[in-house]
Known about the structure:
With about 190 residues, this protein is mostly helical. It has 9 helices and no strands.
Amino acid sequence: MRPSQMPKMMLSFHAGWDELIRIHPSVSRMFALVVLPFSLLPPAMIYYAGGNYGDIFSPGVSAAQWHIAAGIFFLAELLTVPAMAWIMHLACRANDVPAGYHECYTLAAIAPIPMWISSLVLFVPNLLVCIAVGALGLLASLAITYRGMYALFRMHEDLRAMQMATVVTGAGLLAWLVLMQIVLMH
């Protein structure tokens, strides 16, 4: 899977997904090549933006507090990916979808990539622009979750895949809000 395939993966049940299924990367490989590098983006951007113009986002918070928040955010992200894989695995079991933890982890590692990339907008010191781009990243992640559930879990019903993606994305949104709260509280 190449990063250039991400837009296609949001719109197709096969483009990019078939290759990912064929490659069948291990959990450790997904962690090392996807989760770790991409999850470094938001904390780095929080560190940068908080240290340079953090008052735009949260007045009165010192640069040192932003830097601590960036570190906490990074650790929380690393914990969120396996937690989301576990939630997906539970959703699969509850819906009699024969998907193992490996497939769930693969999707949990890929789905947040648009949100991780959207953190680059923090180079722009404008709260509304950051919110808009973050919302687009969230929508793109939802699309990847839906298409990925259908493709990776070998589902044959669009409605069932959409229902499961909605539940999982709801849990992911809750996790994302908790992560945002962690940043804003420090």
